Amino acid sequence: MLIDNKGSSRQLVEKCITCPGMRHCLPHGLKGNEMERVSDMVKHRRPFQRGEQITMMGDEFTSLMVVHSGFVKSYKVSRDGEQQIVGFYMSGDVLGVEGISTGNYGYTAEALETTSVCTLSFRNYEYCSSHFPVMQKWLLNTMSRQIIDEQKMLLMLGKMSAEQRIANFLLDMSRRMSASGTSIQTIRLPMSRIDIANYLGLVVETVSRLLTRLQANDILIVKRRVISIMDLNRLQAIADNSIEDCHPLHHAA
Amino acid sequence: MLIDNKGSSRQLVEKCITCPGMRHCLPHGLKGNEMERVSDMVKHRRPFQRGEQITMMGDEFTSLMVVHSGFVKSYKVSRDGEQQIVGFYMSGDVLGVEGISTGNYGYTAEALETTSVCTLSFRNYEYCSSHFPVMQKWLLNTMSRQIIDEQKMLLMLGKMSAEQRIANFLLDMSRRMSASGTSIQTIRLPMSRIDIANYLGLVVETVSRLLTRLQANDILIVKRRVISIMDLNRLQAIADNSIEDCHPLHHAA
DNA sequence: CGTATTCTTGATGGACATCAAGATACGTGG
DNA sequence: CCACGTATCTTGATGTCCATCAAGAATACG
Which residues of B touch A143 (CB under 8 A)? Predict the structure, then answer.
């Protein structure tokens, strides 16, 4: 028996079928009864609280996880103890695929706020995928997108200035946080400045300074973790390096 | 008809079955006749010469490609024209998976030396994978490994010093260039210093200087593109940052 | 051979890190 | 509700690693 979520009590028995975010999560194209069967294999555990670890780097890979709600960061730890955040994940994003090849999770994933994830054991995934080709396509698409995103980050870390990195980061967050693909004006960042800096290969002071500068140039309004994009075009121009930098607020008026 | 390589002439009709590197390439576990059928779908074209482009960023995604022999670099181009190398590929490495989600290749791949690649159209892949589960597993493993490798690069670019990056790069090349998993002492780098620098988020002068320094410290012997690792332990220590830097050859003896 | 490309080496500069300290927000218990 | 301690964020002064600029040396190549 592969399908094994029946026996265990104490887990929230919310079904994917009734989940409002279903269409971002379980692949489209499943027929009604197929959907039902896949849905039955997905476990919904108690949500994780801020700071709780969802996967630990090095732990045995067992399951793919889809973020249902909340916000997650993932980071690798190098041999000398340095941490590098490799991704932020929100509703619909998939955790754990890096474990498929090695059998161990490749990073530690940690909830940045109260977060619930839907878990599908890889065993069950394999069972599904052999019956429903659309599941296969879903995972390939997911992984392909992760590869693209990481390559974009390589470009950011390898070639872009601190200001460009911040601009791209904000635009990306704004876009991902809107349900649709269009960026929204005001976002509430769930992560600290330290996390942002770490993700972008900078230090916290640099992030702080640049946010201040972008505000002084009327491109952003920064209120702690709430950021409003006041001039999308100029922010995009900075991200693309298609203009000179914005003015470096020395003894400004 | 999915299988379509019969009609076309002018392609080298080398069969995977007879390929010495087969076990690094087509997935193990295929039965004899399965192997035969998969093999028939794989096209072997005329090799690419140095500088020729194998895929162009933005072109329509049609096929997965496995490097049979030779050496390939791939790079993205940002909106302002900056290039960032995102990977080097050698025998057995797979190109093109990033195109699965978008339908377009995500980078330009270019031969660094005479290179032959084996091409499997994604259509045919899907046909295979639905019949031979081991093919599915093969692609998932491949993509999972690419994700891991890119995340390691994120750590390099985000947190490591120039010297650490070079050390890690050389160790990685040495390991990958040996048929087995153990590093070999002498490697011949197929890429220029400029490419190395670009890949590592540095400039060519920095790479040159650091190689010189590593040589002065008896860790390497550098002869143009031929590099011998004389002290693997110290090189590893530098890569891991588990010692202080090696001596910065000021007016040295 | 002569020209181009790649690689090395030196001198100088700048972007971002580090060090230091104050300001603001946050949580907790009285 | 306020007092107090702590974590987060901001701002300034200084330092450093690596980029930039410049030019020579070694190799490749027609």
Answer: 97, 100, 140, 143-144, 147
Given a cut of 80, is residue A229 above it in pLDDT? Answer: yes
* Cα B9 off chain centre by: 30
Number of residues in chain A: 253
Amino acid at the residue A12: L
CB B55 within 8 A of CB B96: yes
Dist. CA A107–CA A89, nearest whole Å:
13
Domains and CATH numbers, chain A: 9-153 (2.60.120.10), 160-245 (1.10.10.10)
Query: What is the side-by-side strand order in the sheet with B43-44?
Result: B43-44, B116-121, B63-69, B94-95
Positions of strand C less than 7 angstroms from a protein CB: 6-11, 15-20, 25-26
Q: Nearest residue on chain A to B201, judged by CA atoms? A: A158
Are the C-beta atoms of A167 and A160 separated by less than 8 Å? Answer: no
Minimum Cα–Cα distance from B87: chain A residue: A151
Q: Is the CB of B241 under 7 A from strand D?
A: no
pLDDT of residue B5 exceeding 60, the answer is no
**CB within 8 Å of A184: residues ≥ 6 apart:** A174, A177, A178
Terminal alpha carbon distance of chain A: 72
How far is Cα A244 from Cα A164, in angstroms, rounded to an integer?
Answer: 11
- pLDDT at A247 (0 to 100): 62
**Alpha-carbon span A31 to A102, nearest angstrom:** 33
Is residue A124 within 8 A of residue A114, CB to CB? The reply is: no
Region of poorest pLDDT, from A59-63, B21-25, B75-79, B220-224: B21-25
Classify B29 in phi/psi space as left (phi over 0), alpha (psi -120 to 50) or beta: left
Asked if residues B171 and B183 have their Cβ atoms less than 8 Å apart, the reply is: yes
Specify the DSSP class assigned to residue B86: E
- Averaged pLDDT, B72-95: 96
pTM over 0.70: yes
DSSP characters over A75-100: EEE-TTS-EEEEEEE-TT-EE-TTHH
